[in-house]
Amino acid sequence: MSSATLALLAATVTMAARRRHLDATRLDERRLELQALAVRRKGYAHQQRMHWELLSRAIDDPTLFAVIDTYDKSIPAAKRRQFLYANAWYAYLFHLFRAEVLDQEELYIAMRELLQNPLFREYWDASKAQRANLKQSSDEARVGRMIDGLVRDLDEADTDEWWVVGNPPSE
Questions:
Q1: How is 54-86 classified by DSSP, letter by letter?
Q2: What is the CB neighbour count within 10 angstroms for residue 160?
Q3: How far apart are CA 102 and CA 41, in angstroms?
C-alpha cells in the first residue's frame, strides 16, 4: 500500500471516529434537553397543585381569602371569591399551556369559551391591575395580552357565533 493510500485511510478512520463522537455528543445534548424539559414540566405540575391547594383553602375559608384578596372592595365578597375560582380555571389552562399539553391555539379556543361566562369576563376585567404588574416579556403577560385582544374581538364582533370570533394564533 502506498503512503498516500495509508494517509487517506487514516484520514477516513479519523473522520469516522470524529463523526461518531459528534453524533454521541448530539445524542447526549438531546437527552439532557429532554431531561430538563421533564424536570420543568414536573415543576409546573407541582406549582399548579400548590396553586390549586392555596386557592381552594381561600375559597373555602373567608379568613384565608382575606389574606390574598386584592380585588376592589366595592365588589361583594362572594363575587370576589368567585373570582378566585375563575382564577383557578385560568391558571389551570395557563399551566396546561406552559407544560405544552395545550398549544397556543388550543389555549385561545378554551379561553374564548370561558369568556362567554359573564362571571369569568368580570374576573378578567377585575384582574387587569394584577396582570399589569407582570414582567412584560413573561409567558403569562404574553398570554394575558392575547386574551385581552380576544376580549376586544368578542366585544366588537357583529355575530352571535362567538366560536368563530378572532384568529387563533398558530405556533
A1: HHHHHHH-HHHHHHH--S-TTS-HHHHHHHHHH
A2: 6
A3: 13
Spatial distance between the Cα atoms of 82 and 85, rounded to a whole number of angstroms: 5
Contacts 24+ apart (CB under 8 A), 48-52: 48/91, 48/92, 48/95, 51/88, 51/91, 51/95, 52/88, 52/91, 52/92
Q: Which grid cell sits at 103?
A: 398549544
What's the burial of 7, exposed, middle or buried (CB within 10 Å: 0-12/13-18/19+)? exposed
Which pLDDT belongs to residue 148?
95
Please report, for residues 22, 71, 98, 109, the alpha-carbon distance to residue 102 in angstroms, rounded to integers and kept in the order given.
34, 29, 8, 10
pLDDT block averages, 10 residues each, the chain of length 171: 79 86 87 86 83 86 87 89 91 90 94 95 93 92 94 88 82 65
Predicted TM-score (pTM) of the model is: 0.73
Q: How far apart are CA 75 and CA 84, in angstroms?
A: 13
